[in-house]
Each structure stands twice: as structure tokens, then as C-alpha cells.
Amino acid sequence: MTTDSFFKLAFFPRKPYADRSEYPLFVRISIGGQRTEFKIGRSVDPANWDQARNMCRGRSRRDQELNKYLELVRSRFFDIHNMLLRENKPINPAIMKAHFLGTMEQPKMLCEVFRETNEKRKEELDRGDIVKPTYQRWMRCVDYLEEFLKLHYKVADIPLKEVTSGMLDDFEHFLRMKKSCANNAAVRYLRCVKNVLQYALAHKWITDDPFFGKKYQRTYAERQFLTEKELAAVISLDLKDIPRLEVVRDTFVFCCFTGLAFCDVKTLKKTDITEDSGGCTWIRKPREKTGELSVIPLLDVPRQIAEKYADNPVVVSTGVVIPVITNQKMNAYLKEIADLAKIPKLLTTHVARHTFATMSLCNDVSIEVISKMLGHSDIKTTQIYAKMQDSAVQSGMEKMRRKFADVRIS
Description:
The protein has 410 residues and is mostly helical. 50% of the residues lie in helices and 11% in strands. It has 16 helices and eight strands. The strands form three sheets. A three-stranded antiparallel sheet has the order 1-2-3, with helices on one face. It has a three-stranded antiparallel sheet with strand order 6-7-8. The protein has a two-stranded antiparallel sheet with strand order 4-5. A hairpin with a 2-residue loop joins strand 2 (23-31) and strand 3 (34-44). Helix 3 packs across helix 6 (183-202), helix 5 (165-177) runs antiparallel to helix 6 and helix 8 runs antiparallel to helix 10. The protein is elongated. The chain starts with 7 loop residues before the first strand and ends in a 7-residue tail after the last helix. 23% of the residues are buried.
């Protein structure tokens, strides 16, 4: 390829194989020793053709219209050449021909390809391979990307080949500053973009990875949980005169003794609770988030809560175990419950799940069993809870403490 700023353009008639009174006209483009030629869809009487001037010398209206068309073709090629120079793109006869004929392959665009991959995410959602919040994050990410491009580049989309490492840094700054994303949220969005660019690399739409050398680390904040004393304070609250808080408290306590996440307890059906041949009652439910099966023995406290709401109209009509309200209202009412119980912690629906994990750990339930009950797909996720309790470390070292209690250093 060459980027020579000089090109030659010539028109000429060529005698056809069959005898005809008119010859088809061709255009020849020459650049730096390379050339290409093709028909332009017009013909001319060879007797009227002036090769030196590259035009028809006839004076009929048809001849004059032909000359005007040749000028338009010439002007179009000058425009194409100037555009390629301006955009610093390779120039050769084949490229100019492709632009003129409209056969030049259009570059793959970033947001366009992003939305194509989102169609695949939709199929995964429909198959149950991913959950709705994950799909929504992908959709939200491309919306943020388009907003970023309009703000910083004044365009709605850019070619994939123009995505640079610096642009990704700017997008990260946009997520953190303009969209007020915390670190983990920003990392999730950037990983979505990285996935799209990996998809483009696999299809050879780009040759370089703009994410090369970049690492984004999620932060793991210490999870809040209730101690057994704090949980007892919540359970002992008399909320019979405040029904809206009572059902929220009972839902929260149910999750504290089962480890179910909000979306799982909301969809928990009576059919998910079964009794084995030994008379033990179990919750067996696939997690909404991962599809992993949670297998949880139903303790006496959650059993009592389930029985308490057995005649509730919502429970009777839908077959759920507890009449769970929305997550937003749950979290709002849990703040009131924390105040009433004098607990200086921010209670949320997920604190109940963390409470179940830490209580199980402190009561000598093994990590493997806790992982099975929580429905974790990776035991490393469960091991996070082992770092949360100093009492678990104390308990684990108690045997060693007793064994060496009588040893004295002389």
C-alpha cells in the first residue's frame, strides 16, 4: 500500500467482443506504479472520443451529458482521495475503486458490536445461564459508553480499531466521576467492555488489545453481620402493633437461619421444603443468581415463621412460604428495626445471609457444609467468612491452648 498524494485518472473506450457502434467506457486509476480499471456504465461512439482530452468531442445533447458525467466521476475520485489523506488512511487504486463503487467494507463499530454481544446475553438470560441483573448491567454499560462517546468525542459510536488504552482510562474516569460508580461497579463495567474487545479480537476485527497491561482489582469490603446477641435482640422485639415491621423482621430472621438471599426467599415455594425418610425437613432450592442448589436443614426458628404465615392471603394464593415485600422497602424498614433493637449497624437483606454464614462457622459447621447450604459455586467465596470472626480463630486454637497450658519457659 502507498500513501502517495498523487494519482492519475484516465477514461478510455475499449472495443467490445461483439461488433457494436459504441464502445463501453472505462476509468483507469494509477498510483505509485499500481493501477486498476473498471467500467463506469457509459458508452461512446469511438469516432467522437478525444483521448487526449479524455472527453467526448461530439456536440449532441447526449455527448454533453456524457462529459458532465465524466466530470462528476473525476470530482468523486478527488473527494475520495482527499478524504483518505485527511483521515491518514492507506491509499491505493483498489481502495479508491472500492470507495467509488461502495464496496468498501465498513469498519466494525464499538457500540454496534457491544449491542450484538448483548443479543447473546439475552439468549443466555432466556436459557437461564445468567440472571436478569447481569443482563441489565450489560445493557446499562453500552448506554454509559454511548453517553461517554457523545460527551468526550461528540459521536455516538467509534470504529473498534480506534479504541485506545487512553480512551479506556477516560471511560473509567467517566464511570467513577460522572456516574458515581464505586470501584467494584466500575470494574464490572470495564470487564464488560473488555469482553466485547476480546470478542472482536477473536473475529480479527482488531489486531491489538487496548486492555493489554491493564489490571482492575475489585475491593472486598468487610461484610456486616449480626452477633447472636444482636440477633436475639431483633427476635425479641414486640412488633405486633406494627405489622409492616413484623413481617420484615420475620423475613430477616428467616434468612438469618437459612442463609437465603432476598431473591431466593422471595421465590421460596412450599414445594421447595421437603421431608426425608428420617423425618428431617429440608429446603432444597436452586439459587436465582447462580442456579447452584442450596440444601439447608430447616431449623425450628424458620419453621415457626413459616407456620406463622401459613394462612396469609399472599401465601395461600401464590404458594410462597413468606409474604416478602420489595427489597427497597425491606431495607428501609430494617433501618427502623435496627433502631428499635439498638443495633448500631446498617441492616440490609444481605446482612441476614452473612449472619447465617458466620453463625454456622462459630458453631463448628465446616466450610464445605456452609458452602453447600449457601449454594456457592466456589468454596473460595465461602472462605471469606472464615476471615470475619475472631471468635472462630479463637475457637480453632482452643485445643492447642489447653494442650500447652502447663508449659513453662525456664
